[in-house]
User: Which sequence fits this backbone?
């Protein structure tokens, strides 16, 4: 049986600007597009949230809904047409591809992430790295023991993408802490097998090797404070410190080339915290 040894590559970014493969504006545009499509697909479940939104925002979604789901039967209500697509189907309809977690093509690498449908064009946001966001002075020692899912950002910020053990407990605790009534400030479904945000699988993208070249790279992105509150329920990241008055750090994975259906994603510039 042919085997492929894995060599961890160091994520070296000499200047902050060198970390940007695409612009922050392009990243934001993609996330808004996907999250808005997910919101509309679950519109019948959003009634409690809609009552808390300003009238212009509610009207915007009411206007967009017929465009997203054209009515075949004029007697059907808008609510009856909802929840007919799975999140990965929404991703395909929105960006032209879908991805999923599955057994990696690398021997002994566990799970990986594959393009299951469509084509990922070069420069597209193909995934997100979920997890709890820690500033470099915040306690992460116990979470880091035997944890290969901690991502180090250029400025020392850490993102713990482990979906098990104490890492899972911490994320769920922070998510419950930040919830405002029906308004969720983050998505915790990446901790389960039923993802609401189909992009939130980036922690399972395996590192490149001498035998498998990278086809995606990591790019840091600070979520703007003006991000629509009704769409925060799809953000798979949360700050460990509730009192931090700073933009939420996120990390996306960007395609370095066109990636075809059936291909596994491999990253470069990966840093493991031991």
Assistant:
């Amino acid at each position: 049986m042919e085997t492929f040894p894995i060599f961890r590559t160091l994520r070296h970014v000499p200047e902050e600007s060198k970390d940007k493969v695409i612009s922050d504006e392009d990243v934001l545009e993609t996330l808004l597009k996907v999250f808005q499509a997910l919101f509309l697909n679950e519109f019948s479940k959003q009634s409690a949230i809609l009552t808390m939104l300003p009238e212009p925002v509610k009207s915007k979604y009411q206007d967009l809904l017929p465009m997203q789901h054209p009515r075949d039967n004029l007697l059907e209500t808008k609510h009856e047409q909802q929840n007919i697509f799975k999140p990965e189907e929404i991703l395909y309809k929105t960006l032209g591809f879908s991805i999923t977690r599955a057994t990696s093509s690398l021997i002994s690498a566990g799970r990986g992430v594959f393009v299951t449908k469509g084509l990922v064009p070069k420069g597209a946001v193909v995934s997100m790295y979920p997890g709890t966001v820690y500033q470099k002075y915040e306690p992460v020692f116990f979470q880091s023991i035997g944890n290969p899912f901690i991502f180090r950002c250029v400025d020392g910020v850490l993102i713990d993408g482990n979906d098990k053990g104490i890492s899972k407990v911490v994320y769920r605790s922070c998510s419950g802490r930040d919830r405002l009534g029906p308004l969720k400030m983050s998505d915790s479904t990446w901790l389960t097998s039923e993802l609401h945000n189909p992009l939130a699988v980036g922690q399972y993208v395996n590192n490149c090797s001498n035998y498998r070249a990278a086809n995606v790279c990591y790019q840091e992105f600070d979520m703007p404070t003006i991000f629509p509150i009704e769409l925060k329920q799809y953000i798979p990241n949360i700050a460990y410190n509730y009192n931090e008055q700073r933009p939420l750090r996120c990390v996306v994975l960007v395609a370095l080339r066109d990636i075809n259906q059936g291909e596994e994603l491999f990253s470069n510039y990966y840093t493991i915290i031991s």
